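From the methods appendix. Each design record in this collection lists the tokenized structure first, followed by the designed amino acid sequence. Records were kept in a plain field format so they could be parsed without special tools. The example shown here is representative of the layout used throughout.

RECORD:
FOLD TOKENS (117 positions):
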């Protein structure tokens, strides 16, 4: 093993140590003119890749796509399909047990906060 490989290995470990702990269940509410809508996400980080799902309704989970983790920042998308697909994109910043999320649904931005359950 060369010194360069060893240094690169330690650097990769150090970078992953600073990544946010996003694994697990996160819950919150989106406030809209039509009322509040509960949000539940389940996340699993694997290095820089983020997988998981949105619990859309009880018993109905929609997988997240394009999931990425970069330090305390995450990004992903979810596609809802009720005859016509609607792609929702999300970015978020993890701070302890709180995840501040910004989303976009067909050009309509929204924001909400999730708490780790």
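DESIGN:
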């Amino acid at each position: 093993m060369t010194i360069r490989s060893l240094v690169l290995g330690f650097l990769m470990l150090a970078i992953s140590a600073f990544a946010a702990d996003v694994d697990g269940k996160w819950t919150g509410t989106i406030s809209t003119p039509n009322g509040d809508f509960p949000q539940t996400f389940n996340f699993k980080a694997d290095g820089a890749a983020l997988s998981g799902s949105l619990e859309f309704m009880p018993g109905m989970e929609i997988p997240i796509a394009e999931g990425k983790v970069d330090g305390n920042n995450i990004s992903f998308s979810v596609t809802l399909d009720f005859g016509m697909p609607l792609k929702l994109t999300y970015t978020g910043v993890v701070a302890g047990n709180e995840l501040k999320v910004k989303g976009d649904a067909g050009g309509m931005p929204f924001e909400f906060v999730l708490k780790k359950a």
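APPENDIX NOTE: The longest helix spans residues 3-17.
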